[in-house]
Amino acid sequence: MGKIGVRWILMVAALISSATSLTASPVETPFLSEKAAAMKRMMAAMHITPTGDVDRDFVAMMVPHHQGAIDMAMAELRHGRNEQLKRLAQGIIVTQTQEIQAMRLALGQPPGPAEPAHDSHAVGGGK
């Protein structure tokens, strides 16, 4: 994806985030803020310079994609109220972490833990 394509996607994501924030309730605002930050980090990290190795490039893009899902699931656990969705979010965290580790192992890289959520909030922690 070229620079114009990535910029366009980031711009659309920012517009959607700002539009939804205008109509958000005060209770929903922290979730939307965390989701928007996770999307921004994910989109920026997925923009890579191709190396000529399709497998490495695939993993380089998919790891931040999966980490974005983990970060958004963490936001759901912190702010969501629906127990079924919170259980799904927990499952997303587990499966996406496992897939990150599997992709790294497939390339001969150490599996390492998934990156922690990129904010100062812990699940159930301070808001």
Write up this protein.
With 127 residues, the protein is an all-alpha fold. The chain has one domain. Helices cover 69% and strands 0% of the residues. The protein starts with a helix and ends in a 21-residue tail after the last helix. The C terminus is likely disordered.
Task: Name a few traits of the molecule.
127 residues, mainly alpha, 4 helices, flat
Q: How are the secondary structure elements laid out?
A:
Elements lengths: L2 H20 L6 H18 L7 H26 L3 H24 L21
How many individual β-strands? 0
Low-confidence stretches: 116-127
Q: How helix-rich are the residues, as a percent range?
A: 55-70%
Number of helices: 4
Largest sheet descriptor: none
Which structural class fits the helix and strand makeup? mainly alpha
Distance between the termini: 36 Å
Q: What would the average pLDDT be, to the nearest integer? A: 83
Q: Whole-number radius of gyration?
A: 16 Å
Global morphology: flat
Order of helices and strands: HHHH
In total, the number of domains comes to: 1
Approximate strand percentage? under 5%
Write a brief caption for the model.
The protein has 127 residues and is an all-alpha fold. It has 4 helices and no strands. α2 (29-46) packs antiparallel against α3 (54-79) and α3 runs antiparallel to α4.
